[in-house]
Amino acid sequence: MAAHLSLAGFSLLQAPGQFTLQGMWHTMGVDAKVVVVILGIMSVWSIAIMIDRALMFSAARKQSRLFVQQVAAALKDNKLDEAISIAEKNKKSHIAKVVATGLSEFQSATAQIPEEEIIEAAKRGLERSVAIVHNEMKRGLTGLATIGATAPFVGLFGTVLGIIHAFTGISAEHATGLSAVAGGIAEALVTTAFGLFVAVPAVWTYNYFNGRVEAFDVEMDNSSMELINYFITRRASAKKS
Predict the structure, then answer these.
(1) What separation in angstroms does the CA of 151 have from each of 34, 90, 157, 176, 204?
(2) Among 9, 14, 66, 95, fewest CB within 10 Å belongs to which?
(3) Contact indicator for 87, 96 with CB cutoff of 8 Å
(4) How many helical (H) and strand (E) elements, i.e. helices and strands, does the chain have?
(5) Alpha-carbon distance 230 to 228, whole Å?
(6) Domain coordinates of the chain in residue numbers?
(7) Are β-strands 18-19 and 3-6 bridged in parallel, bridged antiparallel, or unpaired?
(8) Is the dihedral of CA 66, 69, 85, 119 positive or negative?
(9) What pTM did the predictor assign?
(10) Comparing C-alpha atoms, which of 230, 216, 240 is closest to residue 72?
(11) How far apart are alpha carbons 147 and 194 in whole angstroms?
(12) pLDDT in tens, 44-60
Protein backbone atom coordinates (compact mmCIF):
# COMPACT_ATOMS: atom_id res chain seq x y z
CA MET A 1 0.00 0.00 0.00
CA ALA A 2 1.45 3.35 -1.03
CA ALA A 3 0.22 5.20 2.01
CA HIS A 4 -0.85 4.15 5.48
CA LEU A 5 -2.63 6.33 8.06
CA SER A 6 -2.30 5.37 11.73
CA LEU A 7 -4.79 7.30 13.88
CA ALA A 8 -3.61 5.73 17.13
CA GLY A 9 -0.16 7.26 16.78
CA PHE A 10 -1.26 10.30 14.78
CA SER A 11 1.40 9.42 12.21
CA LEU A 12 1.22 9.22 8.44
CA LEU A 13 3.46 6.61 6.83
CA GLN A 14 4.27 6.76 3.17
CA ALA A 15 6.61 4.94 0.88
CA PRO A 16 9.10 7.86 0.61
CA GLY A 17 9.35 8.44 4.37
CA GLN A 18 7.62 8.73 7.70
CA PHE A 19 5.76 11.64 9.27
CA THR A 20 5.77 11.99 13.06
CA LEU A 21 4.47 14.62 15.46
CA GLN A 22 7.95 16.05 15.81
CA GLY A 23 8.46 16.05 12.09
CA MET A 24 5.10 17.67 11.48
CA TRP A 25 5.91 20.37 14.04
CA HIS A 26 9.01 21.30 12.05
CA THR A 27 7.10 21.36 8.77
CA MET A 28 4.16 23.36 10.14
CA GLY A 29 3.79 26.95 9.18
CA VAL A 30 4.08 29.66 11.80
CA ASP A 31 0.31 30.21 11.87
CA ALA A 32 -0.39 26.50 12.49
CA LYS A 33 2.21 26.44 15.27
CA VAL A 34 0.49 29.40 16.90
CA VAL A 35 -2.78 27.45 16.86
CA VAL A 36 -1.14 24.45 18.55
CA VAL A 37 0.47 26.68 21.19
CA ILE A 38 -2.88 28.36 21.91
CA LEU A 39 -4.53 24.96 22.34
CA GLY A 40 -1.71 23.92 24.65
CA ILE A 41 -2.24 26.99 26.83
CA MET A 42 -5.99 26.32 26.91
CA SER A 43 -5.33 22.73 27.95
CA VAL A 44 -3.02 23.74 30.81
CA TRP A 45 -5.51 26.40 31.93
CA SER A 46 -8.41 23.94 31.98
CA ILE A 47 -6.39 21.35 33.91
CA ALA A 48 -5.43 23.99 36.50
CA ILE A 49 -9.10 24.94 36.95
CA MET A 50 -10.11 21.29 37.27
CA ILE A 51 -7.53 20.62 39.99
CA ASP A 52 -8.36 23.83 41.87
CA ARG A 53 -12.14 23.22 41.86
CA ALA A 54 -11.75 19.53 42.73
CA LEU A 55 -9.60 20.35 45.77
CA MET A 56 -11.93 23.16 46.88
CA PHE A 57 -15.11 21.09 46.57
CA SER A 58 -13.54 18.12 48.33
CA ALA A 59 -12.38 20.28 51.25
CA ALA A 60 -15.79 21.99 51.45
CA ARG A 61 -17.56 18.64 51.60
CA LYS A 62 -15.28 17.18 54.28
CA GLN A 63 -15.28 20.25 56.53
CA SER A 64 -19.04 20.72 56.17
CA ARG A 65 -19.70 17.21 57.47
CA LEU A 66 -17.62 17.88 60.55
CA PHE A 67 -19.03 21.38 61.03
CA VAL A 68 -22.68 20.29 60.95
CA GLN A 69 -22.07 17.75 63.70
CA GLN A 70 -20.13 20.16 65.91
CA VAL A 71 -22.33 23.23 65.46
CA ALA A 72 -25.54 21.30 66.09
CA ALA A 73 -24.40 20.48 69.63
CA ALA A 74 -23.36 24.10 70.28
CA LEU A 75 -26.67 25.53 69.05
CA LYS A 76 -28.61 22.98 71.05
CA ASP A 77 -26.99 24.42 74.19
CA ASN A 78 -27.53 28.00 72.90
CA LYS A 79 -23.78 28.63 72.78
CA LEU A 80 -23.59 31.13 69.94
CA ASP A 81 -20.00 32.18 70.61
CA GLU A 82 -18.89 28.58 70.47
CA ALA A 83 -20.88 28.01 67.27
CA ILE A 84 -19.24 31.04 65.63
CA SER A 85 -15.83 29.83 66.78
CA ILE A 86 -16.48 26.41 65.23
CA ALA A 87 -17.53 28.06 61.98
CA GLU A 88 -14.36 30.15 61.86
CA LYS A 89 -12.26 27.00 62.26
CA ASN A 90 -13.92 25.45 59.20
CA LYS A 91 -13.25 28.25 56.72
CA LYS A 92 -13.36 25.95 53.70
CA SER A 93 -16.88 24.78 54.50
CA HIS A 94 -19.56 26.51 52.45
CA ILE A 95 -22.15 25.85 55.16
CA ALA A 96 -19.88 27.23 57.89
CA LYS A 97 -19.42 30.51 56.00
CA VAL A 98 -23.18 31.00 55.71
CA VAL A 99 -23.96 29.97 59.28
CA ALA A 100 -21.22 32.21 60.69
CA THR A 101 -22.72 35.25 58.95
CA GLY A 102 -26.21 34.49 60.18
CA LEU A 103 -25.07 33.93 63.76
CA SER A 104 -23.05 37.15 63.75
CA GLU A 105 -26.02 39.15 62.47
CA PHE A 106 -28.32 37.65 65.09
CA GLN A 107 -25.86 38.04 67.94
CA SER A 108 -25.15 41.69 67.13
CA ALA A 109 -28.85 42.61 67.47
CA THR A 110 -29.87 44.23 70.74
CA ALA A 111 -32.90 43.32 72.78
CA GLN A 112 -34.55 46.69 71.99
CA ILE A 113 -34.82 45.88 68.26
CA PRO A 114 -38.17 44.32 67.26
CA GLU A 115 -38.07 40.61 66.58
CA GLU A 116 -39.20 41.04 62.97
CA GLU A 117 -36.30 43.36 62.21
CA ILE A 118 -33.80 40.99 63.80
CA ILE A 119 -35.04 38.06 61.74
CA GLU A 120 -35.08 40.14 58.55
CA ALA A 121 -31.54 41.36 59.19
CA ALA A 122 -30.42 37.77 59.69
CA LYS A 123 -32.17 36.72 56.47
CA ARG A 124 -30.48 39.49 54.47
CA GLY A 125 -27.11 38.54 55.93
CA LEU A 126 -27.66 34.89 55.03
CA GLU A 127 -28.73 35.77 51.49
CA ARG A 128 -25.63 37.91 50.98
CA SER A 129 -23.42 35.15 52.33
CA VAL A 130 -25.03 32.50 50.10
CA ALA A 131 -24.49 34.74 47.04
CA ILE A 132 -20.84 35.37 47.94
CA VAL A 133 -20.09 31.69 48.56
CA HIS A 134 -21.91 30.74 45.34
CA ASN A 135 -19.63 33.08 43.37
CA GLU A 136 -16.59 31.60 45.09
CA MET A 137 -17.71 28.10 44.12
CA LYS A 138 -18.30 29.15 40.51
CA ARG A 139 -14.89 30.78 40.13
CA GLY A 140 -13.09 29.37 37.11
CA LEU A 141 -16.08 27.46 35.73
CA THR A 142 -16.74 30.18 33.16
CA GLY A 143 -13.21 29.59 31.89
CA LEU A 144 -13.94 25.87 31.51
CA ALA A 145 -17.13 26.63 29.58
CA THR A 146 -15.25 29.05 27.32
CA ILE A 147 -12.50 26.52 26.62
CA GLY A 148 -15.03 23.77 25.92
CA ALA A 149 -16.92 25.98 23.50
CA THR A 150 -13.98 27.54 21.64
CA ALA A 151 -11.29 24.82 21.53
CA PRO A 152 -12.96 22.89 18.67
CA PHE A 153 -13.15 26.09 16.61
CA VAL A 154 -9.51 26.87 17.32
CA GLY A 155 -8.67 23.35 16.15
CA LEU A 156 -10.86 23.85 13.08
CA PHE A 157 -8.99 27.06 12.36
CA GLY A 158 -5.77 25.04 12.45
CA THR A 159 -7.37 22.55 10.07
CA VAL A 160 -8.12 25.29 7.59
CA LEU A 161 -4.56 26.58 7.90
CA GLY A 162 -3.19 23.07 7.34
CA ILE A 163 -5.23 22.63 4.18
CA ILE A 164 -4.14 26.04 2.93
CA HIS A 165 -0.53 25.06 3.68
CA ALA A 166 -1.00 21.79 1.75
CA PHE A 167 -2.35 23.45 -1.37
CA THR A 168 0.26 26.17 -1.16
CA GLY A 169 2.85 23.37 -1.25
CA ILE A 170 1.21 21.93 -4.35
CA SER A 171 1.37 25.32 -6.05
CA ALA A 172 5.00 25.87 -5.09
CA GLU A 173 6.25 22.39 -6.05
CA HIS A 174 3.97 21.98 -9.06
CA ALA A 175 3.26 18.48 -7.80
CA THR A 176 0.08 16.44 -7.53
CA GLY A 177 -1.07 13.36 -5.66
CA LEU A 178 -1.28 12.39 -2.01
CA SER A 179 2.44 12.87 -1.39
CA ALA A 180 2.10 16.55 -2.23
CA VAL A 181 -0.58 17.22 0.38
CA ALA A 182 0.23 14.59 3.02
CA GLY A 183 2.08 16.99 5.34
CA GLY A 184 -0.67 19.61 5.24
CA ILE A 185 -3.40 17.02 5.81
CA ALA A 186 -1.45 15.66 8.77
CA GLU A 187 -1.25 19.18 10.24
CA ALA A 188 -4.99 19.55 9.80
CA LEU A 189 -5.74 16.21 11.47
CA VAL A 190 -3.46 16.93 14.43
CA THR A 191 -4.89 20.37 15.16
CA THR A 192 -8.46 19.06 14.85
CA ALA A 193 -7.77 16.15 17.19
CA PHE A 194 -5.96 18.43 19.66
CA GLY A 195 -8.89 20.85 19.69
CA LEU A 196 -11.31 18.04 20.54
CA PHE A 197 -8.87 16.62 23.09
CA VAL A 198 -8.90 19.97 24.91
CA ALA A 199 -12.63 20.66 24.56
CA VAL A 200 -14.23 17.36 25.59
CA PRO A 201 -12.75 17.12 29.14
CA ALA A 202 -13.48 20.81 29.69
CA VAL A 203 -17.17 20.36 28.83
CA TRP A 204 -17.49 17.21 30.94
CA THR A 205 -15.86 18.73 34.00
CA TYR A 206 -17.81 21.99 33.62
CA ASN A 207 -21.11 20.11 33.72
CA TYR A 208 -19.93 18.00 36.65
CA PHE A 209 -18.70 20.96 38.72
CA ASN A 210 -21.79 22.97 37.86
CA GLY A 211 -23.89 20.15 39.28
CA ARG A 212 -21.79 20.15 42.44
CA VAL A 213 -22.31 23.91 42.85
CA GLU A 214 -26.07 23.48 42.52
CA ALA A 215 -25.97 20.81 45.24
CA PHE A 216 -23.97 23.15 47.48
CA ASP A 217 -26.55 25.90 46.86
CA VAL A 218 -29.32 23.61 48.06
CA GLU A 219 -27.34 22.76 51.19
CA MET A 220 -26.69 26.44 51.94
CA ASP A 221 -30.36 27.35 51.41
CA ASN A 222 -31.48 24.54 53.70
CA SER A 223 -28.97 25.58 56.35
CA SER A 224 -30.18 29.19 56.10
CA MET A 225 -33.80 28.17 56.61
CA GLU A 226 -32.92 25.95 59.56
CA LEU A 227 -30.94 28.77 61.12
CA ILE A 228 -33.83 31.21 60.70
CA ASN A 229 -36.16 28.69 62.37
CA TYR A 230 -33.64 28.39 65.20
CA PHE A 231 -33.60 32.18 65.65
CA ILE A 232 -37.40 32.35 65.74
CA THR A 233 -37.56 29.54 68.29
CA ARG A 234 -34.84 31.10 70.41
CA ARG A 235 -36.53 34.53 70.44
CA ALA A 236 -39.87 32.93 71.33
CA SER A 237 -38.26 31.05 74.22
CA ALA A 238 -36.59 34.27 75.42
CA LYS A 239 -39.95 36.07 75.49
CA LYS A 240 -41.58 33.32 77.53
CA SER A 241 -38.80 33.36 80.08
Answers:
(1) 13, 38, 10, 32, 14
(2) 9
(3) yes
(4) 7, 3
(5) 5
(6) 29-240
(7) unpaired
(8) positive
(9) 0.78
(10) 230
(11) 13
(12) 999 999 999 999 999 99
